[in-house]
Amino acid sequence: MLSYFIRRILLALPTLFITSAVIFGLSKCAPHDPVLDLGDATFRDFRDQERAVYTRAKNAGLDKPAFYFALTTAAFPDTAYRIFPHGRRDRLLDLCAQAGHWPLVDRYEQALRKIRLFTDKIPDSLTQAASIRLAVADLIACDRLDVLGEKSDTVCALLRTLPANPLPDVLQVAVSQLIAGADPGRMYRPAFYWYGIDNQYHKWLTGFLTGDLGLSRLTNKPIWDSLLFAMASTMIVNSLALLIAYLLAVPMGVAMARRRARSADKITRGLLLFLYAMPIFWVGSLLILFFATPDFGLYLIGGISLEFWQGSGLSYGEWCLHNFDKFILPIMTLSLHALALLALQMRGGVLEVIGQDFIRTARAKGVGEQAIYWRHAFRNALFPIISVFASLFPTIFAGSLVVEFLFQFPGMGMKTQEAFMKGDYPVLFAIMMFAATLTIIGNLIADVMYGLADPRVRFTK
Q1: What pLDDT is attached to residue 287?
Q2: What is the DSSP letter of 312?
Q3: How far apart are CA 381 and CA 233, in angstroms?
Q4: Residues 187 and 97 sit within 8 Å (Cβ to Cβ)
Q5: Please, which pLDDT band fits residue 354 given cuts at 50, 70 and 90?
Q6: Which of 95, 228, 290, 440 is deepest in the core (most CB within 10 A)?
Q7: 323 sits in which H/E element
Q8: 211 contact partners, CB below 8 Å, separation of at least 6
Q9: What tens digit of pLDDT does each residue of 430-445 get?
Q10: CA dihedral angle for residue 383, residue 385, residue 388, residue 389, rounded to 10 degrees
Q11: What residue spans in the chain does CATH classification 1.10.3720.10 cover?
């Protein structure tokens, strides 16, 4: 059994690595982190602003390469990740894509920076100061090589109206060399750069494995602290719902199989199929109407709104006990939906096993029906509900957005929606990674349970 378990873990690790790489890649496609947005902050010159942005990026770990390696084109530099702000990086890479020559683009950028620094110091009293700054700003924003020469000529012409100024010649030479040395074909030449373990993905993955999930964009607090309350609430509701569903579904499925084609089996199966086919939000709405609404229902539960734990002055355990009546309807909604699926799967599993040869042999030996179903057929019929458990296990921790939104329950589902709607991408992708890990763990647990239910599984491929 141990070797089988180790083998399953070794198979799960590559899946976890690929999943984490995909989720991290998605996080890199999200909008740029507002931690690099300095808002209306004023600086003496643009270099101070760039230094401030770079400092923030460094503190956030964004000044490192994204992955262990990069497979890109020969036109792009191997250190593009160090260029901040992002707008400047995007503009320079656009020019690289057209020119195919990073050193010439970098030389042009250095000349342009000297021009910008010079024009920022031009006194406002000069008549042509506004025209020069406008032309320079237009040139800085330019990311098209075909119009770069025209815009640079305009800037140089205006600068030459100022006495003793060598900068126009420097800029014109850099632009001329960039246009003359353009080699767009380098965009089609692959380039491979190896960065090692000092990269953003490695830091993100090791942080996830050690519990350091980073900071939330909204609260600027550790992500784990903001998820702990939601995760604990979700675990309570979903664990109880799943436990109730299994405790009821397993004997119900066996009982239905024993009474196959009888009236009790047909009625129960029809009700379960109807319950499973109903949308979960519809079932939850009916429960609210019947049990938590004074005008139409029994009003056994005084509404569905939970008081906020923060500021209540109660410990988390006391808060749960104080509001446990508000937990009942979400638990019922989830358990009813899972009950229908599990009972039908258990019935099908028992019926599949009950017709096999070893069952007929047991009956021929005079074994009673109770023993046949619970001692011989039950263990072999567990495979379908073990498979269902693998898919239900992640929801214990990840929650159900539909149910939590319906009951306004402060769990992981609502936390996911909040992170998505408010653009808190570090929290959102941490939840995605957590859910993916739980899915892999759920399948691993199911594999082990297969081996416990039937030892023959351990020796198969």
Answers
A1: 87
A2: S
A3: 33
A4: yes
A5: confident
A6: 95
A7: none
A8: 224
A9: 888 988 888 888 888 8
A10: -100
A11: 223-459
* Token code pair at residue 65: 């390469």
The answer to whether the CB of 263 falls within 8 A of the CB of 448 is no
Least confidently predicted of 144-153, 295-304, 413-422: 295-304
Split at pLDDT 50, 70, 90, the class of 390 is confident
**Chain mean pLDDT for the chain:** 85
Tell me the sheet residues that pair with 190.
Answer: 73
Contact call for residues 444 and 456 (beta carbons, < 8 A): no
Q: DSSP assignment of 28-58, as one string? A: HHSPPPGGG--TT---SSHHHHHHHHHHHHH
Contacts by residues 256-265 (CB-CB < 8 Å, ≥ 24 positions apart) = 256/343, 256/347, 257/346, 257/347, 257/350, 257/351, 257/354, 257/373, 258/350, 258/369, 258/373, 260/351
* Residue 195, both tokens: 């960065």
- Phi/psi at 25 (nearest 5 deg)? -60, -40
Could you write out the DSSP letters of every residue in 100-167?
--HHHHHHHHHHHHHHHHHHHTS-TTSTTHHHHHHHHHHHHT---HHHHHHHHHHHHHHHTTSSS--H
223-459 is classed in which CATH architecture? Orthogonal Bundle (1.10)
